[in-house]
UniProtKB/TrEMBL annotation:
Pfam families found in the cross-reference section: ECH_1 (PF00378)
PANTHER family for this protein: ENOYL-COA HYDRATASE, MITOCHONDRIAL, ENOYL-COA HYDRATASE-RELATED
Keyword Lyase attached: yes
Alphabetized InterPro entries for the sequence: ClpP/crotonase-like_dom_sf, Enoyl-CoA_hydra/iso, Enoyl-CoA_hydra_C
Source organism of the structure: Desulfosarcina ovata subsp. sediminis
Protein name from the UniProt record: Crotonase
Keyword Chaperone: no
UniProt keyword annotations, A-Z: Lyase
Gene Ontology molecular function terms on file: hydro-lyase activity
Biological processes, Gene Ontology terms: fatty acid beta-oxidation
Entry's family note: Belongs to the enoyl-CoA hydratase/isomerase family.
Amino acid sequence: MGVDFKIENHVAYITLNRPEAMNSLDPESTIQLKEIWGQVRGDDDIRVAVLTGTGEKSFCTGTDMKKTPPPSECMASIWLREGQPIVPHMKTWKPIICAINGYAVGGGLEMALACDLRIASSNAKFGLTEVKVASLAGLNGTQCLPRAIPQAVAMKMLLTGEMIDAQEALRVGLVSDVVEPQGLMDLAGKYATRIAGNAPLSVKAAKQAAVMGLDMPLDHGIAFSHLLWGALRDTEDRKEGFQAFSEKRAPEWKGR
């Protein structure tokens, strides 16, 4: 199987498993990912997802050019029927952690940019190299990279196709943590467990407020956050949170 999937303690683990091809995506893997992200969105038992790759050499290098045939129909037909592959299917208010274990290039980096929290192994490298093969980072790279890191750094990467290493990615804010390869999944699991232990509706609301607020004027974003706060105020989980705090016990979240 090109993609492994498991659920443990409210955490979905999605692992790209084609190390012989740098965990690049062939057509079968792309279909699997679409189905998996649909399950992540629809399964209330899942509170957070971790996306990573097999091995220590590569997270994902995008499309497997050897296994992906050229399209048999025009771009308009594909676009209007299916839209973009993969990244739109990752849209969910559940947090996604990307554990980047090596090369994150092309579509691999674009998938990472669609995640909420990015952590990397010390040997990771990042790049949008499409200009070197007369293509374009068309999933989300040209739009999300300049929003994730300083524009000057993003433009250098987009226009030259040059890669940056893990320490530079940490310096410019592309990732939040850099650890040795053997500790990457331990850190991902630690963050996922912390997130899954929080009230699921509050976590979703926090992500929604932060993500949507970026496209709003500040006062509109604050007003939107206040509306979400009000929506959470009367939930069963909020009452449980206050009661558990007063009783000095762990809360039991219901997601309602």
